[in-house]
């Protein structure tokens, strides 16, 4: 039987002691199991005891004793993440229910998601088929278009932040370092954030993030999905960042018709990168071309029978 968000097994993590299952947060949310852990916090499966429904709680971690200033900054970070996510009205973005405070720490209350991340899927199964990658790409283009229309730049599109639900829904998660397009660009320029192997060349060079930056990260994500490895990862931070700026992607061995689309998204110069509409049209054309032979075969089989 498929595993849903209500029966996910706790993951094993290292680090400081974690909050025990059974703890009640904000007088309402009962922790059940630990779903995962990232650089900024932990995500728990919990039960909303007021509405009797499962939820996911993101706990922003503050290691050790922190100053009042650090605590305020952490709370502001959680609120920015929640507000950025809430601005994206699209089924492909994770839904935010609330932000609560417990023992001075912020917790983001979100919808729980079944299934697993794209990165977890690749780790378990290896590279994905071309058709599946094309479908994932179309879903991510839709949610990125909605994100950009809402004035948000995600800044951290990567396989670990793409969730593949059992229903087939594809969800973009973790808006933790997202920024708005009306943010002061001078305050963002020169500030590196995100995952090096999926960051765009302009950000590596100290430029300000924009919608095109997310599209480059999407291209790197689709390359990883179909080829089984990131396109510029050299196993060393400096070498990876240098490759992002100067080198072509790793050889295409499995991408087939996806190659031109991925290459178009991975253009070094933002102005030469495929737009959302161009990439969507290309992926839809690939789907049509790959479905036609099967359709013709079925028609011939029906006639012959």
Task: Give structural notes.
The chain is an alpha+beta fold. The protein folds into two domains: 106 residues, Phosphorylase Kinase, domain 1 (2-Layer Sandwich); 175 residues, Transferase(Phosphotransferase) domain 1 (Transferase(Phosphotransferase), domain 1, Orthogonal Bundle). Helices cover 39% and strands 17% of the residues. The protein contains nine helices and eleven strands. The strands form three sheets. It has a six-stranded antiparallel sheet with strand order 1-2-3-4-6-5, with helices on one face. A three-stranded antiparallel sheet has the order 7-9-10. Helix 3 runs antiparallel to helix 9 and helix 6 runs antiparallel to helix 8. It is globular, with a radius of gyration of 21 Å. It starts with 23 loop residues before the first strand and ends with a helix.
Write the layout of secondary structure elements.
Elements: E1 24-25, E2 29-37, E3 41-48, E4 53-60, H1 68-86, E5 96-102, E6 105-110, E7 116-117, H2 118-125, H3 130-149, E8 152-153, E9 162-164, E10 170-172, E11 179-180, H4 185-188, H5 201-204, H6 211-227, H7 237-246, H8 259-265, H9 276-304
Antiparallel strand pairs: 1-2, 2-3, 3-4, 4-6, 5-6, 7-9, 8-11, 9-10
Helix pairs in contact: 3-6, 3-9, 6-8
């Amino acid at each position: 039987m498929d595993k849903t968000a209500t029966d996910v097994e706790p993951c094993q993590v290292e680090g400081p002691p974690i909050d025990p299952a059974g703890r009640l947060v904000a007088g309402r949310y009962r922790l059940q199991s630990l779903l995962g852990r990232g650089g900024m916090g932990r995500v728990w499966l919990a039960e909303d005891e007021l509405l009797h429904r499962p939820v996911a709680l993101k706990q922003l971690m503050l290691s050790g004793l922190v100053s009042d200033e650090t605590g305020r900054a952490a709370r502001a970070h959680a609120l920015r993440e929640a507000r950025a996510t809430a601005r994206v009205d699209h089924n492909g973005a994770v839904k935010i229910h609330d932000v609560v405070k417990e023992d001075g720490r912020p917790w983001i209350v979100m919808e729980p998601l079944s299934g697993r991340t794209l990165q977890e899927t690749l780790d378990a199964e290896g590279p994905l088929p071309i058709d599946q990658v094309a479908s994932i790409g179309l879903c991510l283009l839709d949610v990125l278009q909605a994100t950009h229309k809402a004035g948000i730049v995600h800044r951290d599109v990567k396989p670990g932040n793409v969730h593949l639900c059992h229903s087939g829904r594809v969800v973009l998660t973790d808006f933790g370092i997202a920024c708005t397009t009306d943010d002061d660009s001078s305050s963002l320029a020169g500030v590196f954030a995100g995952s090096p192997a999926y960051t765009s060349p302009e950000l590596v060079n100290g430029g300000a993030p924009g919608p095109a930056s997310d599209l480059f990260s999407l291209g790197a994500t689709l390359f990883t999905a179909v080829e089984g490895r990131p396109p510029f990862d050299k196993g060393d931070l400096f070498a990876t960042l240098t490759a992002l700026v100067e080198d072509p992607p790793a050889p295409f061995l499995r991408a087939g018709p996806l190659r031109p689309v991925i290459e178009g998204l991975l253009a070094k110069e933002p102005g030469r990168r495929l737009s959302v509409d161009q990439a969507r049209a290309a992926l839809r054309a690939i789907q049509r071309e790959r479905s036609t032979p099967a359709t013709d075969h079925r028609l011939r089989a029906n006639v012959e029978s």
